[in-house]
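Are you able to produce any protein sequence you like plus the matching backbone structure tokens because I've never seen that pairing?
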Amino acid sequence: MKNFLFFLYSVAFTVMIACNSQPKDAKELADSINATRDTATTSSDIITVRENEAEFATNAADASLAEINLANLAISKTNNADVKAYANMMLKDHGAANDELMALAKSKNVNLPMSMSSVHQKQRDELAEKSGSEFNKAYLDLMEKEHVKVLAFMEHEAREGTDPDLKAFASKNVPVINAHLNAVRKIKDQL
């Protein structure tokens, strides 16, 4: 009971801080809530993974949400068949990964962001202002850059993760992210 009261106090304090300071984006808020949860128990209201594992999950969710959102933008803006096919692959693969991660996070009481981080939103806004070949180049450059980052944290989790389920999730997705990276580089070479 003492741990549960501490948890409620921590969440209330986090919300109070969030309301009285700079607004947090969805990923920051999820990380903040996860950090306040007690990892020593397995109560249904308590997080059941370490803080770094929860942060991996929020990073992965934020990346997937960004890929999905940017893919929808690309589909609506491009006339290039290869870029459109790549964007459709992003929707399919990242949509499936995000669904799997959401179920996994729920089973571990990890809070995930429900919208993109402010960093990704800014990238999307800048990309939305472009059109034609300028859009295609900027979208593909961003996809390459983001997939390099995602591949790095997926590989790290696959090697160093302590939660067997999140480690397996990362291991399963490393080849998918690698394939996305190779595909975007191939399209860039052809433009």
User: Anything to note?
Assistant: The CA atoms of residues 82 and 187 lie 7 Å apart. Helices lie at 2-20, 26-36, 51-77, 81-107, 118-128, 132-160, 164-190.
